[in-house]
Amino acid sequence: MSLLSDLVNLNLSDSTEKIIAEYIWIGGSGMDIRSKARTLSGPVSDPAKLPKWNYDGSSTGQAPGEDSEVILYPQAIFRDPFRRGNNILVICDAYTPAGVPIPTNKRCAAAKIFSHPDVVAEIPWYGLEQEYTLLQKDVKWPLGWPLGGYPGPQGPYYCGVGVDKAFGRDIVDAHYKACLYAGINISGINGEVMPGQWEFQVGPSVGISSGDELWAARYILERITEVAGVVLSFDPKPIQGDWNGAGAHTNYSTKSMRNEGGYEIIKKAIEKLGLRHKEHIAAYGEGNERRLTGRHETADINTFKWGVANRGASIRVGRDTEKEGKGYFEDRRPASNMDPYVVTSMIAETTILWKP
């Protein structure tokens, strides 16, 4: 082991009670993840006991140079799989010095929806399916694809096994274990239809925690691909042509949907989602029109339809849900680059709070 590796893997608890907290936030594009670290005097498990911090918002596209200070409010804590020990990752949201959420802070508005008594009573569960594409660093071409060329057509790659079908599995497995270590409720992984594309699932998680967990999982994946020298893409259609896009299918249920008679509640919720289709599409990710074409397991972006076991629908209901008369449904419209705070809270708002 090299001296550098020895130092990176030092166990701080052998010599000090101090820990390192990595503060994580979302930058000005709404998808760029930023972070920086600070030393704390000892272990912390409650985000309310963590100090607020600040950063230069003019360098992240979130504040003007003449008034650049943005304040980080700690919101969720996860174990740090990179530094280990008592060190932590801290998911934060961002505010002006006066305490006003900045425009890219989507968590604050989501937290208000999830704290509404009607929403709290329904205990909304989410299962988020995050698809992503691994790209070769210097050419921005999918991992495993020949330079300047294409692999064989889609078919053998979905959940595929073998050197000519699965590209980047070491990254995927490292991410899986790191998320479990961190305390993220990651529930599985699989290879996707397009080679070089993978998926992980987070959930079931309740309310605002689903967004916190997905952002933490995205951060960990960014860090692992950084070490591996691979570019991580959340583009909803990274390769044009006869190749699947990348989505973030959002599985959802409420207490009423999970109870007896829940299928009728599900159908009413889907009806409400249909009435607000355009508003949801506008909030479901940039570039989604390149993905939602009516082909490659999608519904056309301008069409709302639902069906049982139909992967070409906007909303899919599982066979088990139909059979048992209760359960959950899947919103297949969100793009891979969606903000989970926006999508999860909007689904709750439309199905629980909104009155047509």
UniProtKB/TrEMBL annotation:
Alphabetical list of Gene3D superfamilies matching this protein: Glutamine synthetase, N-terminal domain, Glutamine synthetase/guanido kinase, catalytic domain
Keyword Transcription: no
PROSITE patterns found in the cross-reference section: GLNA_1, GLNA_ATP, GS_BETA_GRASP, GS_CATALYTIC
Keyword set, alphabetical order: ATP-binding, Cytoplasm, Ligase, Nucleotide-binding
Ranges for domain GS catalytic: 106-356
Reaction catalysed by this enzyme: L-glutamate + NH4(+) + ATP = L-glutamine + ADP + phosphate + H(+)
Subcellular location: Cytoplasm
Summary of subunit composition and partner proteins: Homooctamer.
PANTHER family referenced in this protein's UniProt entry, alphabetically: GLUTAMINE SYNTHETASE (PTHR20852)
Protein name: Glutamine synthetase
The species this protein was found in: Salix suchowensis
Taxonomic lineage from the root: Eukaryota, Viridiplantae, Streptophyta, Embryophyta, Tracheophyta
